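Chain A, query sequence.
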Amino acid sequence: MEAAGAVAVVTGGASGMGRSIATALVDRGAHVVLADIEEPVLEQTAAQLRSRAAAGAGGSVTAVVSDVSDEDSTTALADRVFTDLGACNLLFLNAGVTSGGGGLPWQQEPNDWRWCFGVNVFGVGIGVSEFVPRMLASGEPGQVVVTSSGDGGFAPVPTASVYAASKAAVSCFTEALQLNLASQDAAVRASVFYPSGGLMDTGLYTAARNRPEHLQRRGEGTGRASMTFEQLRERVAAATGSEPPVADMDALGEFAVDGALRRRFVIAHDLEETAELLHRRADAIGRGELPPSHRIGV
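Chain A, predicted structure.
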């Protein structure tokens, strides 16, 4: 596929990984629709990317305030995309949050599950339900890219159990989506993207800033508080005794877009290391034992 002239939708596009993906798309001349719930940051990012588009490869940038966990909001987003731009060629279902709950599974509250799964899992499901039928009906080539994580997608980080469960769910769902699209020889295909290459300054660990009031935690003094990227970096350095690697977000955005355009199913770095972990997990499961966990994060 080609990005120039294509219509690309990026959820969670105002900051972090979504912004990096959108930047790479703008640089390649795509018509980018940024969808995000955080309106002030969304408008700021859109303005910056419009200036970039005007000075570079062309294309356009549209900002739409959207809540991926809400069906009406996602329907309105899809309506606007297909009414105003006539198509959706690249759909990056990227919006995501942490659970905001405890480091231990039993410290999680029901609202931690509701919020995390509402965005990470239901957001993907609703996005696919609203966009894919229209993409198929258009007859144009299309690619759906779901942002997962090695935490859950490959193996869980034990202290991030709810988040890991949400990412395991979307990895499995995306595989099923691709199998069904391929079996119908559809012009639309799917990819799963695993951001990697070091710690990522994405704002994920401060996602609670957008947490709805009705999904706030009810307990006091339990679980893991939000933290800035610098606090995360310091925590990992203290736990490992060395400065952790930090991912180049712009390069990672380019990598994600390149993988989507090449229509790769798995878009990830370090797949040899991942395969080694998965082999060890398969061997342990074959023996009826607890498989090894993922060691990314904290």
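The first strand starts at residue 7 and ends at 11. The chain has nine helices and seven strands.
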